[in-house]
């Protein structure tokens, strides 16, 4: 990567900690942030993390850069051994890049902290603890978050170009057309036949090309998008479950409940309750 002068700024949004036990009940499936940059830091463990439909190996001391508008997330069975912190910033502007983006599209999104891993982990932990009182400590949180942003950028600029391209092939134009269509219509009650008719290809060929490119059948991709979005709504809003099911294109609340449990291991109501209990427990630990 060519080093170039960059102008950065950013405001702290939040910081989340996820330990091994949390992962078992609330792993976050692929999702998109429309107005923020996320830095996902691995405190311990190893696994894989998906960014823009490609999986990358991650381990202790790694930072995963998740630009605004880029699909990212985790597979529950692959990340249960990981402890992590995730810090989100908004208002980030790097010269030559879209808002809230730290790397160019297609650039390798994982950077290792190397010998700084322990210090970065402590900084993330401090940021997480301070974020419990943003009313009084918001400015401190923003300063620490921006320090993490600048450190990540410095690591990007200094790392040796040691990454290989994983033997990746030239992306299939059709597969990416399909993905763009699915991303635009994943909330609608679409079927494989509808997608194939829209793009004027056979269902078999469409499914084959898509899975070859992205490693997952197209309708399973749609379902993971829906479930990932549902998780965010359940965690951060009071929206009734029936309304979530309808909004995300499920045929019924029973279908939504069944699919949610299939992909996360728990029904949506219990997922919301478990998340709130874990947040309450976290707040109690912060304020003994």
TrEMBL record:
Signal peptide: none annotated. It comes from the Bacteria. CDD domains: cupin_RmlC-like (cd02208). Residues 176-274 form the HTH araC/xylS-type domain. Keywords: DNA-binding, Transcription, Transcription regulation. Pfam families: AraC_binding (PF02311), HTH_18 (PF12833). One of its GO terms (molecular function) is sequence-specific DNA binding. SMART domains: HTH_ARAC. PANTHER family: ARAC-FAMILY TRANSCRIPTIONAL REGULATOR, HTH-TYPE TRANSCRIPTIONAL ACTIVATOR RHAS. This is AraC family transcriptional regulator. It comes from Agathobaculum butyriciproducens. The lineage of its organism: Bacteria, Bacillati, Bacillota, Clostridia, Eubacteriales.
